[in-house]
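G., the chain you wanted modeled:
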Amino acid sequence: MLGRERIHTILKKALSSSTADQTEVLFIGEESGLTRFANSYIHQNVAERNTELRVRAVIGKRIGVASTNDLSDGSIEKLTETAVSIAKLQPENPDFVSLPTPSPIEKIEAFFEETAAFSPRRRAEAVGIVCRKAVEKGLIASGAFSTSKFEFSVANSLGLFAYYPMTLAEFNTVIMSDTGSGYSSFVSLDASDLNPEALADEAIEKALMSRNPVEIEPGEYTVILEEHATNSILIFLGYLGLGALSVQEGRSFMCDMLGERIAGENISIWDDGLDTTGLPMPFDFEGVPKKRVDLIERGIAKAVVYDSYTAGREGKASTGHALPAPNIYGPMPFNMFMQPGEATKEEMLASIDRGIWITRFWYVNPVHPKLAIITGMTRDGTFLIEGGEVTKPVKNLRFTQGILEMLSNVEMISKTTKLERGWFGGNRVPALKISSFNFTGVTEF
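Predicted structure as tokens:
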């Protein structure tokens, strides 16, 4: 970790080296340790330390970006020269207004010494618990456990400076029997929250239950989505249409729908980078403070997220959702939350005469972004529900399903939520009971 003062000095050096009209410098630093295991033993333990410095140079309405991981004075000077040279070669972007000006940033404590100091030995001990418990049941454990510490900092020539350190611990495992598998995962800022015994027990139970799956016909089923599966839905919802650029380009399901009902009245989804029950980050990669954005409120499409560029196109203020430049995706929500309900998973199960219990999805891909249709497969614990009980494992199924249709058919929502990893941040999500879910094919396993 370089620390706030040293990073500030590096960013000021880059800014002073630039001849552009406006300049932005982004610093991302990471120190991480990773322990991988397969066939119930550790096969890899690695550590990585890296930094990235990214300069965005603005000349009039021409923009150039260059990056390096060499923080020497000579490299920084060359980096800014490169960004300026690239900017001079670019066509003008008539929609560009300006880099952001400084705004107050809320202080969030997300750096846990327990995580930062977590040793390879302690990771191995946690992995060892999972592997031993699997072997005791005649199963095979695989997965990964990582602990990381990050530093994010942004400065620009308009006087903006922001710095934020955080830690992160992630553990996921797939435990396999001869004919079935189970999955469990953990993510937290604080590694001391990890309970490897509970993590192992969850995946082991699924692996044992999923032995000797039977084949069922594809079609429309009532389903229970565990939190892992709900998280996949939220990730793709954000990716496909909850950013302003997708609306401005006419490819979002939110186009012409703001203020209209797009989901059930029991569905509320928002993005909040300041909520410490998620994986918070108080500013985006332009240094703009995060704001809570209510995306869908009681089923009504309310808003999308903005960065400074997309906000400038509409004369609005950024909501603090910029990704590192250059960015073809536009702003995206990556600290999403779904409103919990009043049910337990047991109550959901008891309410279903015939349906399917889904642990998680795999190989999810978009089919039709404007209609928010996705396709994918179930994985690591798919079970038939009959008469309010899980009766037998089933072979994994291929689905093709509209997300908005799905969210319009949610009958019950769990009262508890789970923190799941997203593409850039984390999402806190409940389990869902959905009355109609479309399966289009079966697999051989």
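The chain has a mean pLDDT of 97.

Shout if anything looks off.
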